[in-house]
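Summary: Need help interpreting a holo structure output

Steps to reproduce:
1. Submit the protein chain below together with the SMILES for zinc ion.
2. Request a joint structure prediction with the ligand placed.
3. Inspect the structure token block that comes back.

Expected: a single structure record containing both the chain and the bound molecule.
Actual: see attached output.

Input attached:
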Amino acid sequence: MQNTLDLNPEERAVLDWIDTRADGMIETVKAWSAINSGSRNADGLEAMRAELETAFAATGGEISAIELPPTTVVDPDGTVREQAFTPAFHCRIRPQAPIRIVMTGHHDTVFPAGSHFQDTTLWDNDTLNGPGVADMKGGILVMLHGILGLERSPWKDEIGIDVLISPDEEIGSLGSGPILAELGAGADIGMTYEPALADGSLAGARKGSGNWSLKVSGRSAHAGREHHLGRNALAAACQFGLGLDDLNGKRPDVTFNLARIDGGGPPNVVPDNAVVRFNVRVKTENDRVWVEAELERLVDEIRVRDGIEAELHGGFTRPPKPMSPANAKMFEWTRAAGTALGLDIRWQDTGGVCEGNNLWAAGCPNVDTLGVRGADIHSDREIVKLSSFAERAKLSAILLMKFAQGQFDAREARALAKAGPQA
Ligand SMILES: [Zn+2]
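--- attached output ---
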């Protein structure tokens, strides 16, 4: 039998209160799921942000909107243009408090405005199917009720919180990346609300990830009359794509995914334009350096083709998040908090990435799957386990209250992270 973390009467009272909020959380997640907030649906994202403003008012924190810098995107026809984001939601609670915690989430989903998946359906007493119910509208409610739990405790003044809920997580956090870095650098620890697995396991180490678009230009010509004058951009793009795919297996744990090639047109025209999209996942910083050198080599190899120009856009957006001593400490505390609820919390490494990567890159140790228990996210089979709303909100409340009382030393984790890149 494992040791169980002891709770005092004040902590128990907070947990009892959270239990009374379970039905409310479930009603709210149904309402929020009905608001389509695909990453490109500006109206839906703003409607969701208004919901967040109403819900988080109960924390007493100072609520604001943070404008995000635009990013550049490459259209399928090769046009490079700026892409704007809707603002992120920010709630600042007790900025002068001695312990600083950053809590992050996102209100965008992978389901666009025109998706067929817009409704919630109760599959059984414990299973709700719907867009974003787990990833992560449910998680945001878990975060909120963890905070509200802390606010009802006698130790709340020890902890200051920055809540950041971003509109662009599902498309790589390019807009909110700088804000995540700033808040991560200023906090002792981070708590992020991606869903746990259905069995309650959390994500451990995470790979790093980057997305790129390679714009290739050539010269068009009539395929019959003047083929020799054409410079085939699509052929050069294919050469790059095959070279990229060949890199798979060259280095352990590094993967290259050739995702899409746009370009070309009628069969009687030499194509003068192509865009190659790809994703790369890495495990270490050294991997990242190697990948960048290999990409440069591949681009140079197609640039030597006569009349071909190539421009690489994009880069690594989320560095790797290792199971370092500082992150392991966070897991140890989360696991201990779980024992107070009779939970046996485990974790497993993943190739998936999230805001926890961004926070770690800023030196902020964190646990990033503190949200609801769910499954099949990013598909129309996405579900949330209803019993996990109160369960996971209580888990967060215990963590926050233990940090507030110094029983878990948030600054110890931060000091471990500062000890070096492997810490
Ligand atoms: Zn998510």
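--- end attachment ---

Reviewer comment: The first strand starts at residue 62 and ends at 66. Residues 106, 135-136, 169, 194 surround zinc ion (CB under 6 Å).
Status: needs-info
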